[in-house]
Design goal:
- Helix content is about 55%, strand content about 0%.
- It is mainly α.
- The chain has one domain (about 30-190): Hypothetical protein, domain 2 (Endonuclease III, domain 1, Orthogonal Bundle).
- A two-stranded parallel ribbon has the order 1-2.
- It comes from Algoriphagus oliviformis.
């Protein structure tokens, strides 16, 4: 058994190697880069009704199809490109989700104009610093919180699509607005500091 296998991890990530890598390197790390926020918004809105494992396996396909998550380019995608994307097996071929990503790129830039960056906007919902939860079991984890409810409601008011409270809470976990690593996970303290 190597040292990597001996580490205590959140049990949800133990399905396949990409999951473990994602958990160990990205999940819960505070993100302040707008492009990374946009990437996760695209991926999480695509996840609706599917597993995160499915989305992680298609992440490279999304990177190619969505201009390396350059929201300025995505915002300009014409309807003809939506039809092209519907033929791309590298992504989830759902017309509503594809159109939502394009719409959300446009709304994303409106938020940037108002707040200086999307990061400034989203971090305002947690007082500018990560919420540190102390979960002892995955049973303690929540699907939504008052903060995700408020954020999802505000995003909806601004015209964003496919970003309800559960999806937004997943975004908050992924981008480190919330530390939901279990307290016995080796990443809990690393992410906390």
């Amino acid at each position: 058994m190597n040292a990597n296998e001996q580490k205590s991890r959140c049990p949800w990530c133990l399905g396949f190697p990409e999951y473990v890598t994602y958990h160990d390197t990205e999940w819960g790390v505070p993100v302040f880069d707008d492009r990374v926020h946009f990437e996760f918004l695209v991926l999480e809105s695509a996840q609706a009704g599917l597993s995160w494992a499915t989305i992680l396996k298609k992440r490279e396909g999304y990177r190619k199809a969505f201009a390396d998550f350059d929201y300025q380019v995505v915002a300009e995608f014409p309807e003809s490109y939506v039809d092209e994307l519907m033929q791309d097996p590298g992504i989830i071929r759902n017309k509503l989700k594809i159109r939502a990503a394009i719409n959300n790129a446009r709304r994303f830039m409106e938020v940037q104009q108002e707040f200086g960056s999307f990061s400034n906007y989203i971090w305002g919902f947690v007082g500018g610093k990560p919420i540190q939860n102390s979960l002892e079991s995955t049973k303690d984890a929540k699907a939504t919180t008052p903060e995700s409810d408020l954020l999802a409601k505000d995003l909806k008011k601004r015209g964003f699509k496919f970003l309800g409270s559960t999806t937004i809470y997943a975004h908050m976990q992924a981008t480190g607005l919330v530390n939901d690593h279990l307290v016995d996970c080796f990443r809990y303290e690393e992410v906390k500091s």
